[in-house]
Amino acid sequence: MKGLQRRDALKLMGAAGLAASMSGCSVTGGENDDINSKIVIMGAGLSGIALAAKLRRDTPNAKVILVDKDEKFYYQPGFTLIAVGIYEASDVVYEKADYIPQGAEWIRKNVSEIKPEANLLVLDDGSELGYDYLIVASGVEYDFEAVKGLSLEDINDTSGNISSVYTLQGAVKSNELMKKFSQNGGAAVFCDQKTPMKCSGANKKVTCMSEDRLRLAGNRDKGSVNLYVGGGKLFGDPTYAAAMTQIMIKRKIKFNLRHQIVAVDKSSSTATFEFWTAYRQNGEDKIASELIDVKYDWLHLPPKQKGSEILARAGLTKEGDKLNFLAVDKYSLQSTKFKNIFGIGDICGFAAGKTGASVRKMYPILAKNLADTIKGREPSEKFTGYTACPFITKYGKAIMVEFDWEGTAPTLECFGATRESYMSWLVKIYGFKPMVMNGMLKALA
After folding, report:
1. What is the rounded CA–CA span in Å between residue 305 and residue 295?
2. Where's the FAD/NAD(P)-binding domain (predicted)?
3. Tell me: the pLDDT tens digits for 130-150?
4. Between helices 202-216 and 168-184, what is the axis angle to 10°?
5. Is 408 exposed, middle or buried (0-12, 13-18, 19+ CB in 10 A)?
6. Count of alpha carbons within 13 Å of 358, Cβ hemisphere only?
7. Which of 404, 382, 391 is nearest to 334 (CA)?
8. Which of 257, 285, 304 finishes a domain?
């Protein structure tokens, strides 16, 4: 493939993925041909479309309806690749209509209210939609405003020095700020939230790649790379936390645990962090904290993420959960409140399982458990909590991060649990996108 341009390589990999997926594209019936239930999927992102495609194949006589106003589908794993200068915005934006499975109905509206006792949805135009079974695949909402002085407009404003790879415009802006940082140096500050995040490694990828870009430009001594983590460890899984710690130390990336960003002053380019420490006093768990100001030339952060208040008003969240995540059994993905409601993807009320690789494991499990429930059986399949991501650490290197409820869970020995490799880099750059676009969205991967 010597001399092959990046876009040509991407097209070639996409074509290869499509060719590999051509077998089995037709809708087939089987043991679930007798299911004719009305199944409504709230949300038509990766989770919703993949599940709809699976249901159309496995339960061909069921009525499958997707409800989502957004006309565009975004290949979100590509946002970090935009930030590091490998993808462009046009590489990640698709027409959703091209991926809605044949035979599924798509209602281009959003849900404004759920009435679970009545098996009813109220849509944003006031119309009502009944269901026999509801799948919540609505994803998370971004709350940049949770940081005092910050707004979504600040992230997307091309003239500012604050960015985030969690929006398309923010990813493009991150690339521009990263290029500027690699040329001029300065203080780059990266922040992680202590609340659950989808693709929780995204900010750390940008951190590592910014350091590498600075080094490759010959300006490593001109810049400082600083990571502030809201939680008490770099990674939830201890194996990857240890590996990431070694990378940070070796590359002189300063990392600070238990530092939650709480405010920004854009006029002075100052970020304020709450540095917290847990302790026990008189048999009680307590938290001591202080505020610390940090100057930045470039600030990058993920938003606080939460579910919609619609779920809380419908009584579908855990009691006391202010983040409004859907309360589901972490194994069956069935609502803990209503047996005819399930959840899939980022909206589920557990910290892990918020990646595309998790969805790849979830949607076949949910389809089977839904069929079990419709037929009066207990759900028979279990989600293991599997999460995976090729964690890019430098140009040409990545670690294949894989873990589940039990801990580290490598599935391919050639990648190794914590080894930086070119193979993992290739999977991230060329392998994942065809698998998602030509595989998962058609329930073929």
Report:
1. 25
2. 38-156
3. 999 999 999 999 999 999 999
4. 30
5. middle
6. 28
7. 382
8. 304
Contact 388, 200 (CB under 8 A): no
Q: Which domain holds residue 233?
A: 143-304
* CA–CA dist 360, 381 (Å, integer): 14
Question: Where residue 82 sits, what CATH number does that domain have?
Answer: 3.50.50.60
Burial of 202 per CB tally in 10 Å (0-12, 13-18, 19+): buried
Query: Predicted confidence band at 417 (pLDDT cuts at 50, 70, 90)?
Result: low
CB 226 within 8 A of CB 254: yes
Phi, psi at residue 355, to the nearest 5°? Answer: -135, 165
In a domain, 391, yes or no: no
Higher pLDDT among residues 25 and 318, named by residue: 318
How would you class 114 by CB atoms within 10 Å of its CB: exposed for 0-12, middle for 13-18, buried for 19 or more?
buried
Q: Could you report the per-residue pLDDT of 379-408, keeping only the tens digit for each?
A: 999 999 999 889 999 999 999 998 898 887
Instruction: Give the phi and the psi of residue 13 in degrees, each rounded to 5.
Output: -65, -40
**pLDDT higher than 50, residue 237:** yes
Q: 263 Cβ partners below 8 Å, 6+ apart?
A: 147, 148, 149, 150, 271, 272
- Rounded distance between C-alpha atoms, residue 54 and residue 129, angstroms: 22
Q: Can you say whether the dihedral through the CA atoms of 392, 393, 399, 401 is positive or negative? A: negative
CATH classification at residue 249: 3.50.50.100
pLDDT (tens digit per residue) in 275-288: 999 888 888 898 89
Query: Which 3 state secondary structure label does DSSP give 116?
Result: helix
Residue 374 CB neighbours (<10 A): 19
Q: How many CB atoms lie within 10 A of CB 294?
A: 18
Residue 274 shares a structural domain with residue 339: no
> Structural domain tally of the chain?
2
168 and 271 assigned to the same domain: yes
Q: Is 16 helix (H, G, I), strand (E, B) or coil?
A: helix
At 347-386, the pLDDT tens digits run: 999 988 899 999 999 999 999 999 999 999 999 999 999 9
226 and 361 together in one domain: no
Q: Which of 251, 275, 304 is the last residue of a domain?
A: 304
Taking the chain, what is the end-to-end CA distance rounded to the nearest angstrom? 26
Alpha helical stretches, state H, 157-282? 168-184, 202-216, 238-250
What single DSSP character describes residue 348?
B
Whether residue 280 sits in one domain with residue 151: yes
Q: How far apart are CA 291 and CA 21, in angstroms?
A: 53
For residues 205 and 265, state if they share a domain.
yes
- 312 and 176 share a domain? no
